[in-house]
Amino acid sequence: xxxxxxxxxxxxxxxxxxxxxxxxxxxxxxxxxxxxxxxxxxxxxxxxxxxxxxxxxxxxxxxxxxxxxxxxxxxxxxxxxxxxxxxxxxxxxxxxxxxxxxxxxxxxxxxxxxxxxxxxxxxxxxxxxxxxxxxxxxxxxxxxxxxxxxxxxxxxxxxxxxxxxxxxxxxxxxxxxxxxxxxxxxxxxxxxxx
Length: 194
Prior knowledge:
By secondary structure, this protein is mainly alpha-helical. It has one domain (39-193). Helices cover 81% and strands 0% of the residues. The chain has helices at residues 10-27, 31-35, 39-47, 49-56, 58-87, 96-124, 126-130, 133-157, 166-193.
């Protein structure tokens, strides 16, 4: 039995608190000073080979962007299938653990695709996105989503079926869907902002 003051969900509560503080910090005016020193790094990104290709070869940028969107669709499908199974609305005839483990493998591949293609796309328009507040919101949402998935969700779903309250799992599934929808929405917002 855990001896922590916060009970068996110590890590979950601490991660949620860190994410809440980070979100509050990001929505305050203090974020300008934090990323203000990153401008030279973003200027350098545009001078890299990826930046050069992204700026001058529109077809290359569009092709990479296509793979980025396919990775986002793959990630979204993995999240909806796994969380939908936890909520009991999809794939109910298949064992929950099997769905979750296979969707987690797909999720990891999708994250790798998204990060690799996202870095390439960012290099081509680095200074432009540096000045877009929505870019920083997307990075915050992406960090929160990855942190939630690997530090909160995974430890909960890996426990024995009777060890975690089913309502807590359902709440976690709804939060997961909302977090990843926010990542997708802010990413799309970047497209409309530029």
